[in-house]
Write a structure and sequence with these properties.
The chain is an alpha/beta fold and 517 residues long. The protein is built from 20 helices and 17 strands. Helix 4 packs parallel to helix 5 and helix 16 crosses helix 18. The longest helix has 17 residues.
Length: 517
């Protein structure tokens, strides 16, 4: 049977094997590739590097292809529970030094089990992805494993936050787990994510493309929009993850983190009265407005380099965590297109799921015109924003700074889409369409008959803008609650947000709404 001391020694030896991972040579290769190991990442992620590892002694069950006698420490993935800034979090960190972090049945089982821990305890789930993909030796068992992971990602969706860090390869079916999660942080250089690699693409399509251009961080951040944050290295990815968690609650039954202040910080910012150009066709940077309205250094922009005509971000206002959606007049004049609609709608739904108030800043001339947009389904994609805002029951506060035309005005959380408060600057132009387009429709014959059609059109545009493209027509009809000086924007939002903190809005019971996907 052996003595107690012998059994303890046996345990220590097994633990030593676990901590050794794939061995010194493979750990050195990991470091040479500019990557941390699975456990080094956990040491940085958790407070004081302390965590409780679960399922460490789980072993694979494959007996074919020479694997019967082989041991894979932790089966290539470390699953643990620990604290980040004092808050409990579940993490699965794939270990590339063990069988390339490949996913077999038990590897997948461990990830699914730690997801279940997140589900049962109502705490966030983080996965650190660094895997060569499916463990081919295990055949369909590997596919079964991926299926259980996807199922659990879907089960957790909207219940607890899910964050994926892509620190290495994440190819084929493996890419779908991060895609089912809420946020993806990708490490530049070492992180790769794609369904089919360059070799397969060349064989099927004849087109050559390198791995970085196909599935690197920059490609996903700027072109596909699949990821939300780009990190220079593993260390920065972990810091972004920690910062992101600071804005969101542990689960859907809790309010977001709140850093209460003794009193509201109300300021008159005279600079905002001069932010907009006199000429409404000249752009300005919406980020300047956001930085001056919200708490200092509190803005965390999401998907910064994708669909830049709209800004989505987390921020704080008097210590309260909020979600921000804002048109960016500096890019495509702030038009809404397919990509910006998708980007905003998904963010709105996340904020609503986790009780985060949404502050919207409107300056958009409309939906992007064009054959490519129409054929690409701008109607369906634009409808996602209408659906997301209408379905959201969290406090919704809208500020219209300048242009708010047609359906795009509605899509930016108009009063009729359930906004709790709507304020407009005196520069706001709220109308069915811009003055130029409206005049062309309403006064077509009058312009044609004029002695100087160009001058007549110019006069009518100015007359229409002064009469109708103002906030006051909308204010008369109750579509705008207040017309405010720009300098009072922070004050207005602060008071409005405080008055909505106890908001409760019940909707008819149903399985779920059918968002136009």
């Amino acid at each position: 049977m052996g003595s107690v001391s012998e059994k303890i020694k046996q345990l220590q030896e097994k633990q030593k094997k676990l901590l050794a991972m794939g061995g010194p040579e493979k750990i050195e290769a990991q470091h040479k590739a500019g990557k941390l190991t699975a456990r080094e990442r956990l040491n940085l992620l958790f407070d004081n590097g302390f965590y409780d590892e679960l399922y460490g002694f789980v072993e694979h069950e494959c007996t074919k292809f020479g694997l019967a006698e082989k041991e894979f420490p932790a089966d290539g993935v470390v699953t643990a529970i620990g604290a980040i800034s004092g808050r409990p979090v579940c993490v699965a960190s794939q270990d590339f030094t063990v069988m390339g972090g490949s996913v077999g049945w038990k590897h997948a089982w461990k990830i699914s089990e730690i997801a279940q821990q997140a589900y049962k305890n109502g705490i966030p789930l983080i996965t650190i992805n660094d895997s060569g993909g499916a463990r081919i030796q295990e055949g369909v068992d590997s596919l079964r494993g991926y299926g259980t992971i996807f199922y659990n990602n879907t089960l957790l969706s909207g219940l607890v936050p899910q964050i994926a860090i892509i620190s290495g390869p994440c190819a084929g079916g493996a890419a779908y787990s991060p895609a089912l999660m809420d946020f993806i942080i990708m490490v530049k250089g070492s992180g790769k994510m794609f369904i089919t690699g360059p070799d397969v693409i060349k064989e099927v399509t004849g087109r050559e493309i390198d791995v970085e251009e196909l599935g690197g961080a920059i490609a996903h951040a700027t072109k596909s929009g699949n990821i939300h944050f780009v990190a220079e290295n593993d260390e920065e990815a972990i810091e972004i993850c920690k910062k992101l968690l600071s804005y969101i609650p542990n689960n859907n039954t809790e309010d977001p983190p709140y850093e209460p202040k003794e009193e509201l910080e109300l300021v008159e910012d005279e600079f905002l009265n001069t932010l907009l150009p006199d000429d409404p066709t000249i752009p300005y940077d919406m980020r300047i407005l956001l930085e001056r309205v919200f708490d200092k250094d509190s803005i965390l922009e999401v998907q910064k380099d994708f669909a830049q005509n709209i800004i989505i971000a987390f921020a704080r206002l008097n210590g309260r965590s909020v979600g921000v959606v804002a048109n960016q007049p500096n890019y495509l004049a702030g038009c809404l297109d397919i990509d910006s609609s998708d980007k905003a709608a998904r963010f709105i739904r996340f904020c609503n799921a986790f009780n985060i108030p949404i502050i919207t800043f409107t300056d958009t001339p409309g939906f992007m015109p064009g054959i490519e947009q129409e054929y690409g389904g701008i109607i369906r994609h634009g409808a996602k924003m209408l659906f997301a805002y209408s379905a959201a029951t969290v406090p919704k506060i809208t500020v219209i700074t300048r242009k708010a035309y047609g359906g795009a005005y509605l899509a930016m959380c108009a009063k009729s889409l359930g906004a709790d408060r709507v304020a407009a600057w005196p520069t706001a132009e709220i109308a069915v369409m811009g003055a130029e387009g409206a005049v062309s429709v309403l006064y077509k014959k009058e312009i044609q008959k004029a002695a100087d059609p160009t001058q007549k059109r110019k006069e009518l545009i100015e007359e229409y803008r002064n009469e109708f493209a103002t906030p006051y027509q909308a204010a008369k009809k109750g579509m705008v609650d207040a017309v405010i000086e720009p300098k009072f924007t922070r004050n207005y939002i602060s008071i409005a947000l405080e008055s909505c903190t106890t908001k409760r809005e019940l909707r008819p019971q149903k399985k779920h709404g059918l968002i136009p996907l």
